[in-house]
Amino acid sequence: MAFVEKKLPADAPIAAKALGWIDSRFPLTKLWNDQWGQYYAPKNFNFWYIFGILATLVLVMQIVTGIFLTMHYKPDATLAFGSVEYIMREVPWGWLVRYMHSTGASAFFIIIYLHMTRALLYGSYRKPRELIWLFGFAIFLCLMAEAFFGYLLPWGQMSYWGAQVIVNLFGAIPLIGPDLSLWIRGDYVVSDATLNRFFAFHVIAIPLVLLGLVVAHLIALHEVGSSSPDGIEIKDKLDADGHPLDGIPSHPYYTTHDIFGVTVFLVIFSAVVFFGPEMGGYFLEYNNFIPADSLKTPLHIAPTWYFTPFYSILRATTSEFLYALIVGIAAYVVLIYLKSKLAPKIKGAIAVVALLMIVGMLPGMLDAKFWGVVLFGSSVVILGGMPWLDRSPVKSIRYRPHWHRYVFIVFGIAFVTLGYLGVQPPSPIGERVSQACTFVYFGFLLLMPWWSTMGQFKPVPDRVTFHPH
Length: 469
Hints:
- The chain is mainly α.
- It is 62% helix and 1% strand.
- Strands 1-2 form a two-stranded antiparallel sheet.
- Helix 4 crosses helix 5 (94-122) and helix 16 crosses helix 17.
- It is globular and about 85 Å long.
- The model has no long low-confidence stretch (mean pLDDT 91).
């Protein structure tokens, strides 16, 4: 195909000529129109739809601040803590960059959790958006890995011992556990070798994978279109020009919408950075302002707050709790046999796996630490199966039975409670509450194929509900 130069009038502005020159060689305008300028989205978006752009903003912020931090950071066990102090005290505006990066990490998880909450409320993971959810779930896993690897880098007391505890968890895996822990650390204890490989993963490997997944997430989103709060596909009803009747171009409408949301976020973010970057020890633990000491263990070791819901599940798994798990697993298998429409072979496979788990939980078999690691991993992985667990005939919570809202609320309370208890020192009462919340967490998800279909559903309208304001 012959090259065709885009012709413009001789008196056209220089900017237009430059853009025309670029468009003749690279589809810049086409990409803008396809991905945003002329991308039609439902006209009834609400504030729940702001968190996607906020996540993108924070990702860029983390990359930029991270680049500046690596200019002065020393990935060496004898120099790491001092280099962080040098950034904070000697590098011009280094304290601001460091606090933006540390606050950005917590902000990232707050935004992602709220983004996932919106998907849960409006069924944004349902057909045809299963792949969007899976890409988003993979992004969530990458963020957890990125945060874990980055947590060690300040080389403070909590960084050192938190990494020691988490890496040692892999040692509970039968047969390969000790070797796997050794491979992750690169040494028999958390040391300079561990710091170097964690630095490489945090700065290079994980960000590359994360950026690729973000691009895939956006491409998949724009291929099938954005979901609406009503759970209605706006592509089903088009006007004479082929545009959705219930859609509006993202620019300028949602550009303005997002700019407002970004402004509010930046005000809150700036207030935290300038007035409370430690957030009472939740964003930056006080023990992390003490250099790592392999001979002095902190009284209470806990991961950063965004890991604590899953960490609480790990900590709640005691020898006594295994008996309750055995009863729960047996009851779940009975429920599958009585109420599920799965093929007999699949039911049989589930029963075999359940029987092996029950045998493994008996006294003298696999210890509670192993099953804690299993539940810890399962509590994260199970979220990837949401598109297939939810069998509701409608997507949005707006048209579900009213009592479904209370189910969501109880799940949310259990999740937040697990997160809170995870940062607290162990206690008998906290252990029992964590165990109850663990059952609520898994019950919400594993029983979803049944409870999501129960009750009287409201009729879903043909067109999206929209009230101009």
